[in-house]
């Protein structure tokens, strides 16, 4: 493999973002976009190696089928069946490339974001770069997606991206420094803005899956961003609740929770709490005090505080037990075109871990009917998490 410095060739474009973060944009050998986000004060130079691999063409874009019983769109993405499963460090596809490991990222990096090679959504958008197939039957809008009928299908347009928090083989968001956490937050905001501008995208969802018990197939510290061609079922139910209770629903929730014993962490701009009706053994929400529909709408001060406060929360979660806790860290954002004034950005972190050696499994009533039973009182869960957070240092 011949990895050439692209800095002088102009193969990558750079831009200064907030908090001293620099974005450098280039492309992988098959045309997928790759974006580097350099830490403030990075030790990396401006040049980036070119991806000299010979890659197969990008897979055909997946399709979506409508479940007429629920109105949900189900993506069928057969290309995802052969994903890498728990590779060793010398075969890590998210590590910087070496002569013996032709990974997805050609250069050493601080934070890197790239298009997933086997996405559930996309790349059939007009803005897609490279050998992406054209959308055969793309959705024409929310009215089209909301119509019920048998045998309805559409091309699964959108985009799926991988967000690498670090070049190290193992870790999670919670193992990063405050500076690195701030870089990732800047990347989330930048990608949210860019993905929201793509044709056909209705909602953008950054998230981190952590732990084999959740189904993680790569131990590398990373998350993902999905850009959906529809408003997700969970968000659709939220918008209905807002319509039924009032446009200030999140203001009501925040005031209600801040006055309770379920608060676990509070700053100038953010509050973390175990929700009143928590479903999972470990569930905590993190919400900004001011209405912001997504990461792109956060102020620099809100982003700065989030970096340290979120790390304290995640390290508190890991301090509950002697081993790291599996979780899903789901960053809910308002849809791109509806609900922007009422649906607020917030984290919903959930874990099935109900004891040091026990997990909660969704059985008949919960998995089949969506009728939940919680075994741990939210107030008890909040008290344990507060104690764990109290011992955290950054």
Automatic annotation (TrEMBL):
E.C. designation(s): 2.7.7.12
Pfam families per the UniProt record, alphabetical: GalP_UDP_tr_C, GalP_UDP_transf
Gene Ontology terms describing biological process: galactose catabolic process via UDP-galactose, Leloir pathway
Signal peptide residues on this chain, from the entry's feature table: none
Cofactor requirement: Zn(2+)
A cellular-component GO term for this protein: cytoplasm
Boundaries of every Galactose-1-phosphate uridyl transferase N-terminal domain copy: 65-231
Keywords: Carbohydrate metabolism, Galactose metabolism, Metal-binding, Nucleotidyltransferase, Transferase, Zinc
Alphabetized PANTHER family for the sequence: GALACTOSE-1-PHOSPHATE URIDYLYLTRANSFERASE
Family membership noted in the UniProt record: Belongs to the galactose-1-phosphate uridylyltransferase type 1 family.
The protein's name: Galactose-1-phosphate uridylyltransferase
Organism: Microbacterium immunditiarum
